[in-house]
Queue: 3 jobs
Job 1
Amino acid sequence: MLTLRTENTEHKYSSSPLDWITMDTSIAYWLHPRTTAQIQLLGNPVIWYSANAASLIYSVLFIFYLLRQRRAVYDIPTGSWLTLCLTGVLFLGGWAVNYLPFFLMEKTLFLYHYLPALTCQILLIPPLIEHIHQHLFRSEALKNTFSALLLVWGFSLYVTYRRICPITYGDPALSPAELQSLRWKDSWDILIRKQ
């Protein structure tokens, strides 16, 4: 372990912090000795990308409200503004504290280092949805459309979960062709046993 750092070798499952945001990497934890059943560290891509989108949308909303308030235009009540600020400090601040320091590290990094930061991003989604539903859509038609989109989003979460479930929990043993179909990205290291 002490000499590995000095050599120009890289661990098979190491990754860079930029790979984490786009879910470009996976880690194989377990492979059944006789079948193709396996457990992979892979999250739900819909949640992963929704968390990234929530961070981006929150940042745009925050900057928009901040610029409008500098011009003495107050779009939302003071209590909602303070809640939005606290949400950003807790969740985007938590993401930054748990993610950005990895760019300064010179050690071997793995996908699981990103999980605390991802948790902060995921926790940003519900307050952002609530804020959008309460303050951005004034008419009932827009609120109902947004609610319908949330139902579609929730359904896509479930469908993606069911699709990736066999390699997340190691059950059941799949054929090599079925395993290949679960590889959404070429960089995912889904193990396929040669027969």
Job 2
Amino acid sequence: MDSITQAALGATIAGAVAGKQCNAKVLLVGAALGTLPDLDVVLDYGDAVSNTIKHRGFSHSLLLLPPFALLLSWLYCRFRPDAFWNFKRVSVLTLSVLVTHTLLDAMTTYGTQLIWPFEGYFELRNIFIIDPLYTVPLLIAIIVALFSNANGAKWCQSVLVLSTLYLGWGFTAQQYIANRVDQNLAQQGLPNKQVMITPTPFNTVLWRIVVMDEHYYWEGLASLLDEDKDIEFIARPKGAWPLEEKPDTLRGLKAFSHNYLNYREENDELIVSDLRLGMANNLAFEFIYAKRDDSGDWVLIDAPKRFPSPRGFEHLNTLWERLMGDQSIDANLTKQTLGYNR
């Protein structure tokens, strides 16, 4: 999730644990702890792909965070002994904030290395990386807690229940859409082995579907408000890696994306795109791996570079119309808003 959400979640959890001791200082500490795991973004692993796939690694590991939380708690109690903030209470607060950070990240589409140093990216994809309906209640609870010490903790506790229910709602909505997708794939004779269902920006009502096959992939949209349960899928060429040599970063990108990858040539550059994050022409992670030389042969570049693909939100009004169930714009929305008019 975004940094504001993680800070807000950390502050709210801290306020809930603090009880009658909930105050601005406690909320600030919770916010700081909530952003701590994401400080790994300052590390440079040498190239754009490595910086992407190694984020949410050791700093998000459920194998490392508990002992780290206990160490922080021991250090705090060692140098700031306090009758109320004893080791047990401090460790509960610290561990709760750090663990919920990584668990929330695992509910987005990006992928989180929950068991680092062991391999594996985990994601549920039941919430978009920015969702106001999740974040705003947390911010409200923090504001109330700042100006109402007596009821601040109760507000934090209540909003945490509400936010958890919202995550459950996202998962339930995803399963409803998944059942609809299964029916449509069977009716349309499309493959059903590698299917991704993820929310579109800022909501859990309109969902994007990506279906992979050996040579093609299909994109479609489905809203909970659709009257017609048919889904229009648009076929795209998947492309293929054209070189015999496969760099380590490509293998890493395949693992990170679960092989939801597209390969294309543009302006004599070989571009590899992660199809999961964003919406086609607004994909978040695209990388330049090779360029054609004077003879027309592909030559790997020394280090993959980020492709400057547009990642704006100029089509949000159209997405809103689609969210509300206007399926008449599906073909135009998928082909133009989602891109691939190349």
Job 3
Amino acid sequence: MKRRTLFRGAAIGAAAIPAAAFGYSALAEPTATAANYEVSITEQRTNRLLNFKRGSAWTDANITWSWSPGGGGWSNLSDVKYRNTASFGWIALATASGGKVGIVNMTSEKHQELNDLLWSATPGGNPHAIERIPDIGAIVTASSAGFLTVYGPTAVSKPSTLAKVQTVTLAGAHGVLWDPTRKLLWAIGDKVLRAYQVTGSYRNTRLKATSKKVTLKGLGHDLQPDYSDKGKLLITDTYGAYEVNASTLAKKTVREGRLIKSYVRDSAGEGMWLQAKNNEPRPWSSDTVRWDSGSKVRSGGHIYKARIVTTSFN
């Protein structure tokens, strides 16, 4: 495995590498209305995070960025989010059903590997999602065995100091998302979407359940922003995809169907989703990402989730 100590040292001790170094300019942000934004997929057959421009052929030659952590605890990558930090610039938050979660230090290299991690942990219970709380640098993960895990650092600029500070019970926990407008952390689990207040900071960071919750018919699965409307969240459960008004908690069906593993809207309001094909050996995956206006196939791919490549929350 290639070493990247040059980039690691530069990121820790110097100014952050700008987002443009990755080729992620304005097209990466949800406010861009261009149709050719980048899409990130968790591809489990080769176990890589793969980024492509929407309009390109999704072949190896057109990969704009990738991360390959190997197998073991990093097998079956299940979630990715991109966030911008003062100390490191762009980071990728990664989760694997094999057991691991972590923070990837995105350098100027197109293809990155396990040794680009700034931090990793093993929360247990089949990790499905991860989120970072801005300003305090805390991390929250969701494990489908039924709990959220909170990690707090001693300093926001030192992710290596993250340590477990709290475990919160949430049956079937599958998704977590920070809401910067309402200053809440949303989490989705079995038959419920619930909002948590984040209290304290650093090692004193704690989650406190609020009264805001939405009852679902099935097992809650994905949780994403609506990039066309800051007032809405987008979720999926056993039976379909829905929009939720984050203030009134009103829920509306936007797509019916089983096995919708991820759903999001871009800034123009077009839906993008991944619906599993129920084929072995990974019945929860598909080789196809769909939009309201078409689809894109990653030949041979076992894709679990699809994300818009952006560091914005909504």
